[in-house]
Design a protein that fits this description.
- InterPro entries: Nucleotide-diphossugar_trans.
- Strands 3-2-1-4-9-6-10 form a seven-stranded mixed sheet.
- 38% of the residues lie in helices and 16% in strands.
- It has one domain: Spore Coat Polysaccharide Biosynthesis Protein SpsA, Chain A (Alpha-Beta Complex).
- Helix 3 packs antiparallel against helix 7, helix 5 packs antiparallel against helix 7 and helix 11 runs antiparallel to helix 12.
- The protein is α/β, with parallel strands linked by helices.
- It is globular.
- Strand 1, helix 4 and strand 2 form a beta-alpha-beta unit.
Length: 313
Amino acid sequence: MAQVPATPKWHRAAMRLSVALNREAWIDRLTPAPSEAAALRLRDALAARVPPLRKRVVFLIPLVGPDHVGDWEAVADRLSATLDCFIAQDDPNWQAVICCQERPPLPDDPRITFLPFSAPEPGNDKWLKLAALTAHLDEMDLPPAYVMSFDADDLLRQGSVREMLRRQAPGGYLVQSGFVMDDAAGTIALADRPSLRQPLRKPFWKLCGSCAALAHDPDLQQSTAFLQAMTQHEHRMFPYLAALAGRTLAPLSQPAVLYVLNHGENFGARRGRVSFKTRFVERFRIDDPSELALIADGFPVPEIGDDTAEATA
């Protein structure tokens, strides 16, 4: 299963306008993609529904299989760092599900579970694993929650789960601001909305898939179906599809995720899509030691502090 292509920008604009004006005939003529149709079905199901209290954040992690990588131990170490950031959260109300052909070493924590994967797929099977993970939501005993697909080599900032559950954003959250780290160079850059001073900067959600936590209602079949359809697209489609579904995403208040590049086993490297991100980090790199120290405090993984200290020495 390959990643589902994004719909053209003109199509998205026309679809947004048609929905805003409640023109069903226009929507039909546009022939919605399966993900858009799923979004519209969820939108209808949510009409006049009072958003329930979200009590948990669920992270869905597709992990590359050992046959697709050169260093399985390094992949497991990256996953361990990702899970350590979840465990370090000051709000314990989260779960993580890891989907892979082989069970990696996992912490002894009941909030962390393993979903076996056996469907054969040459090359990148990330999308099949995301489909399995989202289907698995129906088998979990979940309260109303926020669901976030999360890459196995990204890091979550301390306090992010607490913010999500305290704010109770009706539709969910978007990582507008986050950090991108070039592991090979030991440099870090801020990804955020462009500004007058930095017109070429990009928001984090355009660079990394660990960027959206969607409100999920386990009692609505349309909610699971939408999450499954949405996660088959590239992450640049997430805010559009969420809004189409009536799940407008609120930006988190601080840089919430750290995306690690060039560590040797990135999905993007196997797809030939990392070089422009490496250039982004170099263009917007952070050199101020006090800023780097604050980043290291927010992401309690030793390598961040070690690598950035070496890069700025």
